[in-house]
Structures are given as C-alpha cells and as structure tokens.
Amino acid sequence: MPTTPQPTRTTRTKAQQREETTRALVEHARRLFAAKGYAHVSLTEIVQAAGVTKGALYHHFSGKDDVFRAVLEHVHGEVAERIADAAPDADPWTQLVAGCRAFLTASTEPGIQRIMLIDAPSVLGWSDWRDLDAATSMQQLEAALTQLVDDGVIVDQPITPLAHLLSGAMNEAALWLARSPNRDRDLEDTMATLTRLLQSLRG
Fold first, then answer.
1. How far apart are the C-alpha atoms of 79 and 99, rounded to whole Å?
2. pLDDT surpasses 90 at 7
3. CB 154 within 8 A of CB 148
4. Quick one: pLDDT at residue 17?
5. pTM higher than 0.90 for the full model?
6. In contact, 77 and 30? CB cutoff 8 Å
7. Burial bucket for residue 86 (CB in 10 Å: 0-12, 13-18, 19+)
8. Tens digits of per-residue pLDDT, 56-85?
9. Would the pLDDT of 135 be above 80?
10. H helical segments located in the chain
11. Which of 2, 49, 197, 202 would staple 28 via disulfide (CB 3.0–4.6 Å)?
12. Residue ranges of domains in the chain, CATH in brackets
C-alpha cells in the first residue's frame, strides 16, 4: 500500500535555518534601529551583528527598508499584545482605559518610540505607516469603542473618526512623554486627562 512521502530531515533543517536567520536579523536590526535610528544603521552592521552574510540577508529581505518593516511589524505586535493583556478579565470600559495606558507606556519606551513613531512614517511613508497602525492598535481601539457603543456605555456615534481622533491624541502624547524629564509624573497626568476625556463620551 503506497505511503505518503514524509518531509526529509534536510527539508526541516533548511526551514529551521531560514527561520533562525530571519529571527536573528530582525532581533539585531531592532536593537540597532532602537539605539541609533534607521538613518545611522547600515546593512553591514546588521549582518555582522546577526552573524550572517549580506547574501543571506538579501535572500530574506529586499534591503534595509524591508528589514525595518519586519522590525516595525514585530514592534506593533508587541504593543498590541501589551494592550490585550492590560486587563483581559475586566469590563469593557476598564479594558479601554487600561489599554490606553498600556499603549502610552509601551510607546514612550525610547526604543519603541524611535522605531514606531519617529522613524516609521519617514521610512515607510505616511500611507503605509497608517495602514500598519490601522491593522494593530487602531483596530483594537475601534473594537473597544464599538463594544462600548453596543453596550450603551458611550453615546452612539461614528466609530472611525472617534478612533482616529483618540489615536492621534495618544500618538502625540507619546511623543511628548518620550521627551519629558519626568515621564512617570507626566504619564499619570496624561492618563488622568485622557480618562476625563473618555468619560465625556459616556451616555
């Protein structure tokens, strides 16, 4: 009776090698981009830090901007996880406020702030940067606001413009907080102000 061919050890090893190479390039590129900024990091530095050749890099990425996009996607995913984990068992209102705090806290960390809010718009272009943001934190914000409208917690209104207004305000606040000489104090003041703003939406 014929049997289904099984993947060979060589095939699995090559797949694992590709995954390991990609992961090493993204991890080391992220560290370099966070520390020095996109403009001051070369491909040579990235491949030397990752312990691979430029040929290996070009096998996985088209160039430095493509590596940066992979790093940015990883950063966005990390921030999204922090938002989702902020208050998973709480009521929707508490989840919204906790998620906003998680976003502001994460995005004011120097490495994340440099990659996600400073370098990303210029490297990817405003449109691509907005599309990536819309697929992660903006999507979470819209989902939270939609739930609160459905529950009658906040006044029924168009969600998309509201989400863009709140997201823009938080992005600007994150940039300000990252340069603050007293970030912990200013974060608390920002959250107090944002919470009052959110409270005004309640029905």
1. 10
2. no
3. yes
4. 82
5. no
6. no
7. buried
8. 999 999 999 999 999 999 999 999 999 999
9. yes
10. 9-36, 43-50, 54-60, 64-84, 92-107, 110-113, 120-124, 126-134, 137-150, 159-178, 183-199
11. 49
12. 13-61 (1.10.10.60), 64-199 (1.10.357.10)
